[in-house]
Prior knowledge:
Blueprint: H1 11-24, H2 30-54, H3 59-81, H4 91-99, H5 102-105, H6 109-117, H7 140-152, H8 158-170, H9 174-177, E1 185-187, E2 192-194, E3 201-202, H10 205-218, H11 244-253, H12 258-270, H13 275-282, H14 286-296, E4 310-314, E5 321-329, E6 334-342, E7 349-351
Antiparallel strand pairs: 1-2, 2-3, 4-5, 4-7, 5-6
Amino acid sequence: MDSGVLPRVDRQLMLYQRWPTERLATVEDPEHRRHLQHFALWHQMRRLRSKAENGQLGCSQANQAKQEITQTRAFLTWLAVRGRTVEHCQQADLDAWHTEKPATRRPAQTFLRWCMKTSRMPRLTLPPQVVNQDQAPLHQHRRLAILRRALNDDSLPLRTRVAAALVLLYAQPVACIVRLTVDDVLDDGATIAVRLGDPPSPLPEPVADLMRAYIRSCRHLPYASSRSSQWLFPGRQPGQPMNPVSLQVHLRKIGVPPQRGRTSAIRQLVLQAPAPVIAKALGYHDKTATRLVTEAGGTWARYAPRRPHTVTSRPASPRNTRHLNMRTHQSRGRITCEVENDTRPGPCLGHV
Length: 352
């Protein structure tokens, strides 16, 4: 497949097709096996095939489907101990199931929703997801300081510096970063942009230089064989992108917290432009962007400001270094970033 001799098949989808068969063979209860088989075949496989048509599946998507099967089997066994079947499940049963180990048992909710939708069980209420707020987003000044180090510290790995810029500047999840291809980077010689959403987002000059240097270096990677070189962050296996967990490890090694940094970046962006503009430009869902506006303290319905907002970070040193100006052009529906030379001394803080 990597050489083009055989038609390409989604590797994660192919591996997952065998997994339910092997797992269901160990289920003794025939009624439980029937429920699991129908759920895996009619819901999960249909959903994964639909996603695979739009792009190769990642490890996290396949692992999530496996976790749903595992927790569904545990729920059916637990429910049988209580002397009930799915058809006779009651609200008290669901409440009791989610009381103990709610995070571990939550994947079974996909099965429960599917059963309710297909009239396999009564319409009941599932508990809402509790978001852990222990890790607050990075302060704006701290985010800009980490971003400045990633752009200027040549001792850091080039691949990690590029990924850090995409996280801290464009609020991209690590799982989406590893799915970027070389074709998503548009370089006309004068400007360079990345296709994160619609339209592509231009890169400021320091990030553009890093991106060009990184793409040149990818051609010399020993594990980036013919087909795998299409990935912007190729993995060690031919035709596969980098594992998102591995990229997270590399980011944390240079002091970049992926989740907190991304949350800080997107919350700052949605305060500078309407949520639909940010969502379309960066590949977010409209509802997600609108929710982030509320969490960040903005209003849901507001007019676009006439003048673009500017986020500027100034270095502490008076030496000739770069600072970042990020302007959100709402009339054009796109985000543009500019980097200028600054010889003025200033505090190592970001100014909004």
